[in-house]
Amino acid sequence: MTATPAARPRPPAVGYWIGFAVVLALLSVAPLVLPPFWQRFATEILVWGLLAMSSDILIGYTGMVSFGHSAFFGLGMYGAAAALLTVKPASLWLAGLYGLVAAGAAAVFVAYFATRLRDIYFAISTLVFSQIFYVIIFTWTEVTGGENGLTFSQPRLTIPGLWSDRFTPVTFHWFVLTVVVLSYLLVRRITHSPFGMVLQSIRENEPRTRAIGYHVERYKIVAVMLSGLFAGLAGVLYAIQNKFAAPDFVFFVVSGEVVIFNVMGGMGTLVGPFAGAAFFLLLREGLSRFLTEYYLIPLGIIFIVMIIFLPQGLLGFLRRRLNP
Amino acid sequence: MDQIIIQTLHGLVNGMVLAMVASGLTLIFGIMDIVNFAHGDLLMLGAFVGASVLGVTGNYWLALLVAAVVIAVLGALLQVTTLRPLIGRDPLTTILATFGISLVIQKYALWQWGPSVRRISEPVPGDFTIFHLQYPWYRVATAVLAGLIIGGLWLFLKYGKYGIWIRATTQDRVMAQAMGIPVPLVYTAVFAIGSAMAAASGVLFGPFAGVTQTMGFDFTLRAFIVVVVGGMGNLGGSILASIFVSLLESYAAIVVSPAQAVIVSFVVLVLTMLFRPTGLFVPTPK
Predict the structure, then answer these.
(1) What is the pLDDT of residues A179-223, one digit of tens each?
(2) Which of A8, A279, A289, B3 is deepest in the core (most CB within 10 A)?
(3) In-domain check, residue A295
(4) What 3-state class would DSSP assign to A313?
C-alpha cells in the first residue's frame, strides 16, 4: 500500500485491534481453564476455522465458491503422514513442508483447469477434482492405506538445535493458535494488499476488471493456490492432532462443511469462518447428544433458514469494520 | 469379445438410466438456473419410497407411479418453501440451499430406512442369450422404459400446451409473464417434473444394485458431468453424453476396477470443459 498515497487519512482501527487482542487472550487462556474434552474441542475449532478461512479467500473475496477444499485439506494430511512415516527421526517441520507441497501441487493442478470456468461451473469442477483425488487415494491401497488410511505417532515439538519436547494438549493448542493467528494476519495482509483489491474487484465485476487491464485468470490461479496452501496447512495440523490420515477427509462432505462454515459465519470477513466453524461444531455437539448421527437433519434446516433469512451470516454485519 | 458385448450392453442400459436422471437435472437448470444438488437424493428417496410400496403391494409398476407422484409433491413443496424465496439472488445461493436439502434428505432416509441395502425385485423375469451369454431381460426393459419416458417428456415439451409454456419461460421469462403465463407456477411445476423423473429413475435403477441412502451423491455427480459434457440445458446432448460416458466407463471397467473407472468420466468432463466448453454434442456455434 506504500505506492498508492491514500486520498484521505484512514481512521486508526483501534477498536479492531482491541477486539483482536481480547479474542487472542481468551483463546490463549482457554486450554488452561477448560476440561480436557473442551480443550480438544477448542483446538479443533481453530483447525477447522483455518480451513474455512482459506476457502473464504475464494468465496468471500474473489467470488468463487469452491466445493473441493477437502482435496487440499486431505492432501495436507497425507503429505504430513508421508513425512512422518518415511523420514526418521520424525520432524514436525518436515511434516508441515511435505503437507504444504502436496496441497500446493494439487492446488496448482486444480487452479490451472478450474479457473477457466466461472460461477457454478467452477464449483462443479472443483468438486469433480476433489473426487478424482478421493478415488485415487481410496483405491491406491499400497501407498495410501486405502479405506483404513495411515496412522503414525505424533512428532515432537522441536526448535532445531535449541529445544525439543513432547506435545501436551495445552502446548499443542498454543502451537495451533500461533499458526492460525500468523496465517490469519498473513491472509488479512494479502486481502488488503493491491493484489487482494484486484481479487475483490473480480468479485464485484469481472468483465470490468478485465477491461481495466488485469489478467484475471492469473489472479484467480494465484488465489486458488493460496487458498489451497492454507487449506493444506489446516490438514497438516489436523493430521498431527489426530495422528492419522484417512480418505474420509478427502471426501466431498468436508468440502460441503467448509462452505457451510463460511455461509453460517459470514463470507468475506476472515473471522466469520471461525465463528461459523465454532457455531456448527457446537450445534453438532449439542444436537448429536440427543440425535446421534441424525443431527444433520435440524442442522441442515438451520442452514437453509440462514441462507434465506440471514445471507450475511453471523458476523456479516461486522464486514465493514473487519475490512477497514 | 464376450466381455466387450456384455460391457456394451451394460453401458447402454446404464446410459439410458443416467440420461433420465440428467434430463430432469437439465430441465431444472435450463429453466430455473438452479443447480440442483439434491437431485440424486431425490432419486434415492424415490427409490426408497418405491421399495416400500413394492414391499406392501408387490406391484412394481404401482411402486414406480407412487414414487414419482410422492417425490413430485415433495419437490413442489421444497421449491415453494426454499427456492422461491431465493429467486433473484445470486445463483450460487441456490447451490447452497439445495446442498442443505440434500443433507437433510440423506439423513432422513437413514433415519427412516436404516443403513442396510434394500433390494427391489426384478419386474421382468428371465434372461436371454446373446452369443451364448446370459443377459437379464429386465435391464433391457429398463432401458426401453427410460427411453419411452424421456421421449414422453420431449413430446410434452414440444407439443403439450404446458410444455410450450415451459419452453416460453426458458426463452424469455419477462415476455412469458407478459403473455399471461404464470411463471412462478411454471417454476414449481418444472421442479416437480424434474423430481418425479429422478424418483422414477431411482425405482428403475433399484433392481441393478439395491437402494442405499448414500447412492444419491454418486448420481448427482454423474448427472452433472453428463449435463456439462452434453451442453447445459440441452436435452438431446445430455442423452447422447449419458450413453457416451456410460459406455466409456463400462469399457474402462474391463481394464481397471469399477471404482477407478469413474475417473474416466471425470477426465472426459475436464477435457470437455477445456476444449469445448459449450458441450460435446451441440453443433459448433458459428
Answers:
(1) 999 999 999 889 888 998 898 898 888 889 889 888 888 899 999
(2) A279
(3) no
(4) coil
